[in-house]
Description:
The chain is of the alpha/beta class. Helices cover about 30% and strands about 15% of the residues. The chain has helices at about 40-55, 80-85, 95-110, 120-140, 145-150, 160-165, 180-190, 225-230, 275-285, 300-305; strands at about 15-20, 35, 60, 70-75, 75, 170-180, 195-200, 205, 210-215, 245-250, 265-270, 290. An 8-stranded mixed sheet has the order 1-2-12-11-10-3-6-7, sandwiched between helices. A two-stranded antiparallel sheet has the order 4-5. β11 (about 265-270), α9 (about 275-285) and β12 form a beta-alpha-beta unit. The protein starts with 16 loop residues before the first strand and ends in a 20-residue tail after the last helix. The relative contact order is 0.19.
Amino acid sequence: MIYKIPWIYTPLRTVLSIGHQLTKAETPELMKCSVLMRDRNKVEETIQAMQQGGAGCLQVISDFDMTLTKFAHNGERVPTTHNILDNRLLINEDCTKKQIRELLNIYYPIEIDAGRTAEEKLPLMVEWWTKVHELLIEQKIRKDMLAQAVRESSAMLRDGYKVFFDHQVCLLIFSAGIGDILEEVIRQNHVFHPNIHVISNYMDFDNTGILRAFKGQLIHTFNKREDATSLAAHLRELQGRPNVLLLGDSLGDLTMADGVSEPQNILTVGFLNDQVEERKESYINSFDIVLVKDETMDVPNGILSYITSSRDKQGTQKEIGHKSKAA
């Protein structure tokens, strides 16, 4: 097949490569205007190497809030798993709700501040998560009300989520959010398949179904390396899968694959949702692929479709899947 590509005149870019031409791996999703790459050749080579191993050697490690879920919809922020608990059924409208929002206004700008190092942010993130969890425990949240709170929320998985979850590739969701809520969001979207494993902050309820604590060690944005090493290694399903597609929306998510035993190929995809100009450079320098204000799973779906596709006897390659459709 011969492709005719019209000349496109754009300013010379010395650091950044934007998908505007066909690739060796023939990945049309990488041509989206939302896609930025520092080293296109490296991305192509990694995708091709991962396809050689196929689905049996592949695992996906992904953040949840603002990665598998949308950041915004119709100009409004989509709630995180913590925000979903900001519901009259669960917490006091006048006190706790206001306090949680005040904490968000204080600490979220710190979390995404490109001028601070991860080391500077770490104790402040612990402080933020700890304060929020303490407030939630004070509210004596009922377990039997969580499903209704999710139904009443505006939580939304990204467009194309059904295609993503239906790939049936081993998926480890590594979230600093609330695992009970995370699972309920996936369950209510009818995509909680057996291939999904979750590491997150889980609620601990007493024998009457009232929240009394959070289980285990606190997981926040900037300590995922520690938990990746100690927890992911114990999941038998992840053993013998040296190729990793990593999805995240924070630089802290880049450590989620640190627990993978003897990794061979790791491809990182970063969703840049907010403060784009301030954070663009650091994301481009850190992630292999950066998706700017892209509320879809098109690129991950395309990569997964290509990696898991088979070659015919002539060795011809399939293009990375068909454009994923919104579920």
